[in-house]
Amino acid sequence: MDVLAAVVEVLNAEGLEVYLIGARAMAFYGVVRETRGWDLMIDAPYTPQLRDRLTRRLRELGLDVRWSWWGFSVEGAHGFA
């Protein structure tokens, strides 16, 4: 399973636009920085209801979802998204 594609698909199904930010986005501008993860931003404010829906849908796909003060991380069979 492509963890990143699964996460983006779930976010889009919730009607959220997803933006690539961080080191991988910088690579588009020629700034190369090593990173293991994908930093994504969505166009919606945080709510407990949104958190619960996203967590449920991602876990239904067999993904491990962990929330923190800064957002959430998702881990699948091949590591973090």
Automatic annotation (TrEMBL):
<protein>
    <submittedName>
        <fullName>Uncharacterized protein</fullName>
    </submittedName>
</protein>
<dbReference type="InterPro" id="IPR043519">
    <property type="entry name" value="NT_sf"/>
</dbReference>
